Task: structure prediction
Amino acid sequence: MEQQMPNSSSMAQFLLLALADRRELQLLHFWLFLAISLAALLANGLILSAVACDHHLHTPMGFFLLNLSLTDLGCICTTVPKAMHNSLWDTTTISYTGCAAQLFFFVFFMSAEFSLLTIMCYDRYVAICKPLHYGTLLGSRACAHMAAAAWATGFLNALLNTANIFSLPLCQGNALGQFFCELPHILKLSCSHSGYHREIGFLVVTACLAFGCFIFIVFSYVQIFRAVLRIPSQQGRHKAFSTCLPHLAVVSLFLSTATFAHLKSPSISSPSLDLVVSVLYSVVPPALNPLIYSLRNQELKDALRKLMTGCFSEAINSPSFACYGPH
Result:
């Protein structure tokens, strides 16, 4: 039952969207989320270990891939555990502070991920279109600065939006209509016109920056594909495509699901559809990103194979488990 609250300071908790009404379906959702989260943790953990262990992956793309895996792990760990808890214990509540923390970290990791995907596109553009300048434009210091800028952008975006949205009086009840704390759903509970317009201003600025990144990605890939098609050898074209297609697939999955989730028409909206769409953009991409990259990246596949076989043999032959061997 919704509680009518005069302002957010007196609100003790929010009501999240129930994943299912029947107990059997709630438990099914719990096991599905558990399987997805374990797969995401394992896959991203393997990529983090492979990049750290294999010196062949100590490249700008490997460094950015390591950062991308961290954002994927962050996204999964922000939304899924609470959804699993609610499904297992047949509840829909989340505390006020828990909701604020969940919103902050979700916006933080999602913003940082999109910034990293844009930087990784720049990496592919320089590698294929300006190979002679690659070492200069993407040196270790430049890569560290770009990664730091991505994380700082995510942090600032999350801080501004979370601080603003939770400073608004929320008097339209406490039911969010989403299985995790998401900014548009909290904004619907606001009854402050000035605060509402201020938050809309923040969202417009964020959307403009995201659209600018999108235009940069599209422009870069137009230049990349033009350069690749001019490569005379088929083997050279195949190698160039194999390094670009995983990134393009990840960007497409991220943008298509997030765009559809936030821009779909209200006329086709329903609780079940909203749930499926929100899972598609908040849970599925972090679990699939490692698979997409490992399918096409031969160096990454070799590193993962070496890591798993090395750790397996080490575990058999020695009581102490160590993955790091001599390069």
User: Anything to note?
Assistant: The beta strands are 13-15, 93-95. Residues 193-229 form the longest helix (37 residues). The chain has eleven helices and two strands. Residues 1-9, 320-327 have pLDDT under 50 and may be disordered.
